[in-house]
Amino acid sequence: MIRLIVADDHTLVRAGICSLLKSKDDIEVIAETESGHEAVRLCRELKPDAILLDLSMGDIDGLEATKQIISANPKIKVLILTMYENEEYATRVMDAGASGFIVKRMSPEELPDAIRKVVEGEIYITPAIMQKMILRKRKDGEKGLLSLLSDRELQVFRMITQGMTHNQISDKLCLSASTVATYKWRVMEKLGVQNNAELMRHAIRIGLIDKFD
């Protein structure tokens, strides 16, 4: 029996996932949460076989949560679930120790199969994302602009494109507002954009956020 934790800050999505998995005889959802911090705590206490972890959480994001979970217990398989079909996110969470990266537009049949595969020790990445990762790797030394950003800069970039203010980002990341402003300036400089509107257009163009979210 696979012991699984489900972490997603959208109640309806989380409920749907748990309902789907309850019909599987070999998968047991032992806990669920809407918080990244809580996901890390539950993994430390319950020691699940795997955790299905949303990339975009209300407090800490999936990348940071993955780092903390793997640091505390490398045996736990982290399967990232996201709406963002972007290979940069996939590359970073896999580098952080995740075992899989799947998008929410997958078929219901794909999810339990992905969980089983990562628990068995395989790597599972949504095929379309895997193809993008391979194509990017084949470009001899050519790097996307996002690869120039640090993990923290990428976090700030994503939060800005979600409409969060400097103070809101400051509270989420436990940084001063001036530090957030510095990160934003670095992001804009590295991406070659001048304002928030250009940041949004750039994020949509490269698939970092969904145009209709």
Brief summary of the model shown:
Helix 3 links the parallel strand 3 (50-54) and strand 4 (77-82). A six-stranded parallel sheet has the order 2-1-3-4-5-6, sandwiched between helices. It has ten helices and six strands; from the N terminus they run βαβαβαβαβαβααααα.
Describe this structure as you would to a colleague:
This protein is of the alpha/beta class and 213 residues long. Helix 4 (87-95) packs across helix 6, helix 7 (151-161) crosses helix 9 and helix 7 (151-161) crosses helix 10 (196-205). The protein has a six-stranded parallel sheet, sandwiched between helices. The chain starts with a strand and ends in an 8-residue tail after the last helix. It contains ten helices and six strands. Helix content is 51%, strand content 14%.
What kind of assembly state do the chains in view correspond to?
single chain
Mean of residue pLDDT? Answer: 86
Amino-to-carboxy terminus distance: 36 Å
Number of strands: 6
Count of alpha/pi helices: 10
Order of helices and strands: EHEHEHEHEHEHHHHH
β-strand percent reads 5-15%
Biggest beta sheet summary: 6 strands, parallel
Largest beta sheet: what is the strand line-up?
A: 2-1-3-4-5-6
Descriptive keywords:
about 210 residues; alpha/beta; 6-stranded parallel beta sheet; 10 helices; 6 strands
Provide the fold topology.
Elements lengths: L1 E6 L3 H12 L4 E7 L2 H11 L3 E5 L7 H11 L4 E6 L4 H9 L4 E4 L6 H10 L4 E2 L1 H12 L12 H11 L4 H8 L3 H15 L4 H10 L8
Parallel strand pairs: 1-2, 1-3, 3-4, 4-5, 5-6
Helix pairs in contact: 2-3, 4-6, 7-9, 7-10, 8-9
